[in-house]
Amino acid sequence: MATYYGKKYKLLELRHRVKEVILATRIALKSNELGKPVSRQPLHVAMVDGESFHGGMCDRFKGIISLYAYCKYRSLPFRIRYTYPFKLEDYLSPAVYDWTLHEREYTDNPLYSRILYMRGEHTAARLLKLNARKQIHFYSNRDCLPQINAAYAGKEGQKAFNWGELYRELFKPGPVLAERIQSIKQDLGGDYYAAVFRFQNLLGDFHEYHFKSIHDSAEAEKLIRKCLDALLKLQAEHGDKALLVTSDSVTFLKRASQLDGVHIIPGNLIHIDGQKRHIPKDTYEIYLKSFLDFYVLSEAQKIYRIGTSYMYPSEFPVYAAKVHDIPFESVVI
């Protein structure tokens, strides 16, 4: 760990500083938004625009919340430019704080803006050293809230921020999403708990980057059976309470839905940042499914993340639990 945050980390920061220059030049050369921004105080803009790798849904929210916390501590204007592969406003609306960009607030002109590229940087060091005189375009996929709290909480009476509180200040479901959430909760019929399984492409039905599937059908069936047994064990512990099951595998969801008392949210998923070459048509419903899973999970009584040692320990359910600070447990089977 010391080595990682030493020479290797300094090298990572150096590479990112070079990338910032390249990104800024590339974006400016093709941009139509090069005017001087109207805002007197430099905006700090969380960027999800497809110009770089952003990661999955939760990775994007980690970066957004980190920048928002920094801005809130320092009373700086905060905005979100989320356009890839959809506009965030198509699914979420501002809650307490209006993060939407207004006319002539945004610029790609390097004279008035600079990029702070921190993807993969696990500390908030470069953000905390920032003394912005230009508009900041922030690219990050890491949760730096603990470091930001450590830097500012307790000073001048400021309290530490809670991730879920910050999320709820920024976001509420848009009209379509809110209606669908309500419909699913009615089907669940009251209090429920949830189990999340992340197979990546092990079962051959969720194409994500270069992850390989299990080619032996007997081995795949053994894995499915092991996960179904884990659900039966959960049900034995929780009695007749409804069990919501989410997964990136349609194959597994079909099998899980055959168990009495198990509820699933119908629909297909794709990885938000893993489909640049093969984005399907009419993706609104596909991306809506990710938000539905996230929000319905966030209102469960408890979330279990279940998987084998070789399945991916997704942080999707971890951050869904943070939204309302509900109990979370990771179960290795």
Describe the structure.
With 333 residues, this protein is α/β, with parallel strands linked by helices. The chain is built from 10 helices and 11 strands. The protein has helices spanning 4-30, 57-74, 125-128, 145-152, 163-170, 175-188, 217-238, 250-256, 284-298, 316-323, and strands spanning 44-48, 78-82, 92-94, 113-117, 135-139, 171-173, 192-197, 242-247, 262-263, 303-307, 328-332. Strands 9-8-7-10-11 form a 5-stranded parallel sheet, with helices on both faces. A 4-stranded parallel sheet has the order 2-1-5-4. The chain has a two-stranded antiparallel sheet with strand order 3-6. α5 packs across α10 (316-323) and α6 (175-188) crosses α9 (284-298). It is globular, with a radius of gyration of 21 Å. The model has no long low-confidence stretch (mean pLDDT 92).
Unreliable stretches (pLDDT < 50, length at least 5) are none
Largest pleated sheet: 5 strands, parallel
From the spread of the alpha carbons, the general shape counts as globular
Cα-to-Cα separation, first versus last residue: 28 Å
With strands numbered from the N-terminus, the spatial order across the biggest sheet is 9-8-7-10-11
Could you give the count of β-strands?
Answer: 11
**Binned strand content:** 15-25%
Structural class: alpha/beta
Q: What is the mean pLDDT? A: 92
**Radius of gyration, taken over Cα atoms and rounded to an integer in Å:** 21 Å
Please give the count of helices.
Answer: 10
Name the helix and strand elements from N-terminus to C-terminus, one letter apiece: HEHEEEHEHHEHEHEHEHEHE
- The percent range for helix content is 25-40%
